[in-house]
What does this fold into?
Amino acid sequence: MTASVNELELYKEIFEKEPSAIIVLDERGVVKKANDSALKMLNVEALEGRKWYQVIDEVFRPQKDDGQEISTVDGKRLQVSTKPLSHGQLVQMTDQTETRKLTDKLNHMERLSSLGKMAASLAHQIRTPLSAAILYAANLGNQKLPLASRNVFQKKLMSRLEALEAQVSDILMYARSGEQSVKVLDAVDIVEGVLGSVASVVEKSGANLSSDIGPRPMTVLGNVTALNGAISNLVTNAIEAGAKNVKIELVADTKNVMISVKNDGPMIKPEVSAHIFEPFYTTKSNGTGLGLAVVAAVAKVHQGDIRLVSNEKETVFTMIIPKYEGVLEPSESFKDEKSVA
It folds into this structure.
């Protein structure tokens, strides 16, 4: 009997001294128990006896850049998870405010360290097509130039200007890749959007594009424009590399959503693979070296990863993004309780 009492006291002490916030809800969504860390983290005097959805409305203020955390009214970034209990629900929260600040600072420093390299690369990448464009424009100013020659110079000028526009677009996409607002998305919609976006490029190249999409829903927290652009980039790169067959596969497991772009193009050598996601690294004579760097940056900002496997048979780029679980909302039974409150 004494051993049981001592064990119970130990559990109570652990509950109170646990640095993470722990909140226990009953079947009606009312806070049954909360430790001191929960009171301090949420900056409230009392929680027990309150309805959880009321606490949510009072304490949390989600922001566009929350990512996997949720913002509070006093500026904290909390990571929230829930687990069902036999009679209610367990809510656990960890304060990620300082970790998020450190991550943002490191990302900012990485970008600053790339400025010098970016400036040197831009001077080289932009100067060549710009010089050609100036030359073609000067030729167009020749009043004695035959019409046929004028048309040739006009096409060459437009080609150089389009190349400049593409390079500037890559630079802007890379610069903005870490500053995207996010919302809850179904990865199935993202892939279907990509299929529509690249249809004209695929048709023009004569390549074949297929897909293998798993069942809905595959919920992620992300930016649809950034994800669409990154996956479209992988498809376009494959076609430009000479692939005749490209396939987009979408699958999910218990934790992640995996979007793979497979192609039968030339094998990417190991020495190239080691640097292929680095900014400004390119094997193309007219490339900026930012396309795949953007893909890697998009994966990173979505708390995910990008992987490459390439052999003589096929090349596969796989973007891995964590599944999003609606951790803030109470269960359906708790929502029903709110409607009758």
User: Anything to note?
Assistant: The two ends are 42 Å apart (CA to CA).
